């Protein structure tokens, strides 16, 4: 468990090199480690997300269920990413998304209340919170723009380019849902690219 916390603290230190050892120790004292199995939920739709989780091992997906009852994948997150529906987390309102483990996953977690306490202790931690928020916003904007400006083929190629390590860790049905294409359309795209 301590090794998992150290992985997270290293990430914090890299993003906020001005943190003192004392500040980092205060932060570390607030962290917990949570291990979930494949198919377990980090958060379920309609529930309030009480903790934010930094993934040190494993893979998750965020999804919602549409009006027809279909699961719609909105993101995949692996080692070094955060498990969160961030707008719901920071407002402490029920999440519209479920976050489910696709593999056994280890999270280093910080509660909402402890995060607020940490922010009050040091401006360096507020900077770290801003970095997290900016990364979440950047990913969301890229996702929105991919559906506005890119074809399904371009989204597929961008996914392979940006997430090469995830390609063999996710099911084809989850990938299709994420890309917003039917399975047969993705098969045609892959066949077309194989012949280029």
From TrEMBL:
<protein>
    <submittedName>
        <fullName>Crp/Fnr family transcriptional regulator</fullName>
    </submittedName>
</protein>
<dbReference type="InterPro" id="IPR014710">
    <property type="entry name" value="RmlC-like_jellyroll"/>
</dbReference>
<dbReference type="InterPro" id="IPR000595">
    <property type="entry name" value="cNMP-bd_dom"/>
</dbReference>
<feature type="domain" description="Cyclic nucleotide-binding">
    <location>
        <begin position="35"/>
        <end position="121"/>
    </location>
</feature>
<dbReference type="InterPro" id="IPR018490">
    <property type="entry name" value="cNMP-bd_dom_sf"/>
</dbReference>
<dbReference type="Pfam" id="PF00027">
    <property type="entry name" value="cNMP_binding"/>
</dbReference>
């Amino acid at each position: 468990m301590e090794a998992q916390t150290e992985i997270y603290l290293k990430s914090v230190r890299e993003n906020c090199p001005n943190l003192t050892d004392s500040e980092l120790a205060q932060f570390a004292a607030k962290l917990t480690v949570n291990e979930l199995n494949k198919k377990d939920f980090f958060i379920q739709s309609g529930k309030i997300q009480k903790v934010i989780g930094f993934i040190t091992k494993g893979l998750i997906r965020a999804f919602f269920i549409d009006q027809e009852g279909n699961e719609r994948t909105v993101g995949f997150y692996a080692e070094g990413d955060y498990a969160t529906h961030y707008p719901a987390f920071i407002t402490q309102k029920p999440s519209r998304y479920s976050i489910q483990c696709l593999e056994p996953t280890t999270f280093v977690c910080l509660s909402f209340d402890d995060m607020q306490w940490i922010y009050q202790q040091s401006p360096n931690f507020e900077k770290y919170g801003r970095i997290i928020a900016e990364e979440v916003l950047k990913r969301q904007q890229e996702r929105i723009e991919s559906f506005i400006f890119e074809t399904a083929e371009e989204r597929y190629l961008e996914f392979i380019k940006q997430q090469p390590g995830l390609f063999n860790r996710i099911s084809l049905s989850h990938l299709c849902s994420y890309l917003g294409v039917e399975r047969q359309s993705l098969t045609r795209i892959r066949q077309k690219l194989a012949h280029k």
